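Predict fold of histidine kinase; 553 aa.
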Amino acid sequence: MPPFARTEPGPGARPGLPRPGFSRLGLQGRLVCLHLLVLAAMTLVLVAVQTVSLYGQARERLGERAITTSRLVAQLPLVVRGAAAGGQNPALNAQVNALRGAAEADFIVVGNRQGLRLAHPVPDRLGQPMEGGDNVEPLAGHEVVSVARGSLGVSVRGKVPIWEGGVAGGQVVGVVSTGYLMPQAWHLVAQALLSLAPWFLLALALGTVGAVWTARRLRAEILNLEPEQITALVGQHRAVLAALREGVIAVDAQGRVTLTSDRAAEALPAGPPPDRLAPTWPELAAHLAATGPVRQQNVELTLRGQPVLVNVEPLGSRGEQGGFVASFRDRAEALALADELTHARGFVDVLRAQTHEYQNRLHVLSGLLQLGRPDEALRVLDAEIEQGAQFRQLLRDVQVPRLVALLAGKRERAQELGIDFQVAEGSSLSPAWERHADTLVTAVGNLTENAFEALGGQPGSVTVLIGEDPEGAQIEVEDSGPGVPPSVAARLFTRGASSKGEGRGYGLAGVHARVLALGGELRHTRRGERTVFQVNLPPPAALSLAAPPLERA
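Predicted 3D structure, encoded as tokens:
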């Protein structure tokens, strides 16, 4: 096989895709050659079909004549009496042969119950068994038309039973077989084909012209891409679908599902895929029936009872309805990813705050030392160490390291914002809660950050209390801010509910979803002039049975 050949892509073609040397004819040349081969094959098929048709027509006409003649012969009194007697009768043979000439048949044979010939065109064969093996049906009382080889050759024969007394329904006493030898069928077929030859040539010429025109139109429709390039693009397309973590389905303008990715096939109902979208995903079909296939992002729907987020991208252009592509992902996975991003953002903020605070302290210490005030620098350093020790002392009984690290970072963040951040004395949490550290960090981190934002850059205080008893864990985040606006309070834990503008209101909804999934509750209240958010979680033993999948998310 020759090496891969590089060709210059035509207008609209995508470069970089090799084409094998055997395909240098291009799509148009290959289509024309393929069309010629198809026409040649079709010509052979037509010849075979014409031959079969002529054979069938000849057999049908001859069979009708044969069965009609046999019926008439079987009704003759002489034939009925001779078949019932079962012996030779020269008068019977003479009369039957006379009828054969009038019917223009090649033979009329009369046989008795044992299948022995009582009448035959060749006298020497009288008394011998009838040949062809097709006497079973007529001797059983049924008429039959068959093609079989007898003593005179291959023939179309019509066989009729001879009834005792000439009355159908009685006893069968013999059989009448009228036959016509097959003519020179191949000669007739050759004549028919010669008469059709000019039409075949005309069809070939018109087909070639049509193939050239179709190839040009097809090449324009597929952006002048060659088959090898299309194959490469389809392979890339399949690889992209397989690599996506989201499920993808494509639906045409008639609502038929035309494509599903592997991940979508796993999520959709099991069994052979239905032809239409409605039985496959009723919720999506109902939603698009109301809104139309317009571009949509993060639409909350359910798939087999599970909440998912759906993106819809319409197909077609210039206002044409060409179907759509829908991608979807599990809502729990999206929330888990959002939590991870929130954690990462929080850690970045904490590190930035710590960096600023330590830089400020180092600058103060450096300035005092440069001014020759080492004693005052020492007092500042001792005060900082004492404050850190006091804060760590407050957290000594909170035995979830990630939660302690979060609170330490929030303290640095509060100092940067000028907020008095405290952890209530007596806060404690046993090591058993480490398995649910993700939920605890998410809840405390979001509620604390919301409390910072609630102060609106004004001086204030935020206090976190963490406690544990036999009924579970209790977390309170209290701030001195103005509280939740009444317009938002009624839908506070709904996604997108926020007084801070577009694109907000997702963190608190995520906390609420995770707390509910663990069998807990999240609520808020006003305690005097302070706003309090409370999180109550059942004991760890109950949590391990309640919702382990969400904790792994």
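Residues 26-74 form the longest helix (49 residues).
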